[in-house]
Amino acid sequence: MLPMCPDHGDRFDRSLWQAYVSANKIFADKVMEVINPEDDYVWVHDYHLMILPTFLRKRFYRVKLGFFLHSPFPSSEIYRTLPVRDEILKGLLNCDLIGFHTFDYARHFLSCCSRMLGLNYESKRGHIGLDYFGRTVYIKILPVGIHMGRLESVLNLPCTSTKIKEIQDQFRGKKLILGIDDMDIFKGISLKLLAVEQLLHLNPDLLGKLVLVQIINPARSSGKDVQEAKRETYLTARRINVAYGSPGYEPVILIDHPVARYEKSAYYAVAECCIVNAVRDGMNLVPYKYIVCRQRTPLLDKTMGIATDSPHTSTLVVSEFVGCSPSLSGAIRVNPWDIDAVSEALNLALTMPEPEKHMRHEKHYRYVSSHNVTYWARSFLQDLERACKDHYNKRCWGFGLGLNFRVVSLSPSFRKLSIEYMVAAYKRTSRRVIFLDYDGTVVPQTSINKSPSPEVISVLNALCCDPKNTVFIVSGRGRNSLCEWLSPCDKIGIAAEHGYFLRWDKTSDWEATTVVADLEWKEIINPVLRSYTEATDGSSIEIKESALVWHHQDADPDLGAWQAMELMEHLENVLANEPAVVKRGQHIVEVKPQGVSKGLVVERVISTIVNGGMAPDFLMCIGDDRSDEDMFESLLKSSSSQSASVGIFACTVGQKPSKARYYLDDTSDVMKLLSGLATASASPKLRPNMQIQVSFESTA
């Protein structure tokens, strides 16, 4: 609920949020007192403790942590209005496994992660997973079950049999509809009463034969909304009883006092129909309990005067907004706001043929009895163990302050590149090749002005002027932009459009790749891209000499992602027999010639240098995005054909999963490293002759 006005729910109160945080901290302190983090698993339950995982993860980086939400997760349109939305999402993402009752609830959570944190999910061998700073956070969809043994033991109590006889005598000759709900504004009790009123109005023959027994559990709070819901319920029930009742007959009976478990079980066993009409609810196990009680026990059959071999029956009317609804395929699902539809559903339930009632009951009972609370707990814990099995195979670092804390989990061989170590290795070598990315590496990704700063130009020129150095910018951008930006660097090499065009220095001519020269497919896909651009507000097309790129960064996140997947499939079908490949990137879909990649640029440059009789003894590549992974792969692959004395350094920008073995934190770290190398090049002790390749990364 959005508190549009003070009477419509409480507005966000920062002091109450601080109290919530404090309560979670108290739980965290207690867990830390007793936990053995290497052996123990922690399973956190429900919305009361949604930031507890952050406190635990901050204390133990490798804590084995699961969370299960027993209430609905709101849609992103509602959730995004919460001032502390990021803190709660990040709290849940500090878990290893997050459980939801239904896919709807999980879908809302995933949509919030996508829209607010830019995280995308994928299915990994049947399991939904979110990649969060190197950790995979798994999502599990599993409705909770009931404790069969406990319920069946209550059915066999003598007091239950006594209560059943009492109910049978009280309602002899009448059809009993049962409702059991908490008193709050979400349970739809008044809507249920209106449906019964409509049913009696349209079916006068049911007068005197139909009774709704509504058991009201004690309210969990006493706010104005609860009092209003209670007042409306009593007024509606009184109106119905006055209009359709008679001496000795009330069509609606409200039981508004604490009711023992055995009494509820007795009502379940006798009722012909059970209705759950909530407008919003978590799981709601009332239908499950009703099904088990209608299955009865031999003792209960004897008490009720029913033959042991007689078929068991039950009918359910369930709101489609209740968590148990998807698992009860034999129930009559209704929209609780549609009074006419609920009335018709009740009439259908009461007039349904006995064989169909039996068939639906058997189907439900098989599900409820096999998917009990033991099955639910065992299944969740098995998945939690699987989600945590790689905890000690990776190195972990903690980042972020307060509730923004998260753990970055990476391969043990992945470590930060030491500037001092690199400069020392640089000085010891005599023939060096260095590959650098541009956007997000030399220039910040968020920079609006993509022209290199004077500092960048100065460092690149210093590296290029060393006789032993060859510097290349390898980029997905067009060659015109690269030429303009890097015009002050006379000796720098440029590989544009992922290496489709290559130039060794400013005086050299552009060389086009010999892999493919047929670009007729561009004319084929142009209309397709224009069609998707017109249909997706915020998207655009980037036209390159050798490639076409569809951008959806400024489109609605969900719409852009859906359209990108559809466009991928569309283009793959259209280009099935063409020499082009379709690639999905961060907010882009790119179509480029087959056999063109940054990795091939690396191989081409290195082979040219080797064939010239000057085998390199120092190879370095720095980049920040997916296309640079091809460079890392080619560089590491070339190490197998090089002598053991060759220093090979593949480095990504930012701590994230990568084929590179090293990382630097950001562009400022990259510039510190390059400045150190440039200073070493200017040293008179240095021997001449080194080669450096710099990669200029495109938005693609």
UniProtKB/TrEMBL annotation:
GO terms for biological process: trehalose biosynthetic process. CDD domains: GT20_TPS, HAD_TPP. Coiled coil: none annotated. InterPro entries: Glyco_trans_20, HAD-like_sf, HAD-SF_hydro_IIB, HAD_sf, Trehalose_PPase. The keyword Glycosyltransferase applies. Keywords: Glycosyltransferase, Transferase. It comes from the Eukaryota. One of its GO terms (molecular function) is trehalose-phosphatase activity. Gene3D superfamilies: Glycogen Phosphorylase B (3.40.50.2000), HAD superfamily/HAD-like (3.40.50.1000). It holds the Pfam family Glyco_transf_20. The keyword Transferase applies. The gene is TPS1. This is Trehalose-6-phosphate synthase 1. GO terms for cellular component: cytosol.
